[in-house]
UniProtKB/TrEMBL annotation:
Transmembrane segments: none annotated. Residues 208-219 have a biased composition (Basic and acidic residues). It holds the Pfam family CxxCxxCC. Residues 196-225 are annotated as: Disordered. This is YkgJ family cysteine cluster protein. InterPro entries: Puta_zinc/iron-chelating_dom.
């Protein structure tokens, strides 16, 4: 198995034109169905967000001069956390997920009167949102929304009703550039998390999130402060 450093080198050498060819071959057009932004029958919406993306979203969602709190934008990735006797999550986890509302949907998702979905932070949405439903098949990169339903070379496509539709070359290349950037960022993040990780031993009802910047509390502040 290749190391994360080797996979990162592979990601950096990916040709945008080749990725665009694969995307064109699979085909895609967003139908604004909202499925990628909302909870399914079993789980809340879960989309990985990098620490700098959280800060960008805090600013983008600011009201006047008032910036949103970290926890308004992101929550600890739930995988690996346990539920305490009080029903709260506790333990250690890795990375952040976009925050969800009471229905388990992304807090930035809204529907109009016709039921068409939209992202209220569209221009600042994380890379994983920009590139859905595609991913790169490299170890250390995330594979959203379950198993791939289609593949073309190193490009994987995940369940989405917009697959198979015509896509322009310009749109395919724009998506390909974002997809390459995301793969690189995910691998850089994974390496930094690995190198900075130190067991934190959180107490009852406490959550510690390990990201590329170190261990943090649920509100995004460094654990060492």
């Amino acid at each position: 198995m290749q190391s994360l450093e080797d996979e990162l080198d592979t990601a950096r050498q990916l040709a945008v034109a080749d990725l665009a060819d694969a995307i064109e071959s699979i085909g895609f057009e967003c139908t604004r169905c909202g499925a990628c932004c909302t909870a399914d029958d079993e789980d809340d919406h879960t989309a990985t967000v990098f620490p700098d993306e959280v800060r960008d979203l805090q600013q983008a969602a600011a009201t006047g001069d008032e910036e949103r709190e970290w926890r308004d934008v992101a929550r600890p990735m739930p995988y690996g956390l346990a539920e305490s006797e009080d029903g709260d999550l506790e333990g250690e986890t890795f990375e952040w997920a976009l925050q969800t509302d009471g229905c388990g949907d992304c807090v930035f998702y809204e529907e109009d009167d016709a039921g068409r979905g939209s992202c209220v932070a569209h221009d600042d949405r994380p890379l994983i949102c920009q590139t859905y439903p595609f991913s790169i098949a490299l170890a250390g990169t995330s594979q959203p929304m379950g198993e791939a339903v289609s593949e073309e070379g190193i490009v994987r496509a995940h369940e989405c009703e917009g697959l198979g539709r015509d896509i322009s070359r310009d749109d395919a290349e724009e998506l390909a550039r974002a997809l390459k950037e995301r793969a690189i960022r995910e691998l850089e993040e994974a390496i930094a998390v690995r190198d900075r990780y130190r067991p934190a031993d959180p107490g009852p009802g406490e959550v510690v999130v390990h990201d590329s910047e170190g261990a943090k509390r649920m509100d995004g502040t460094p654990l060492e402060d």
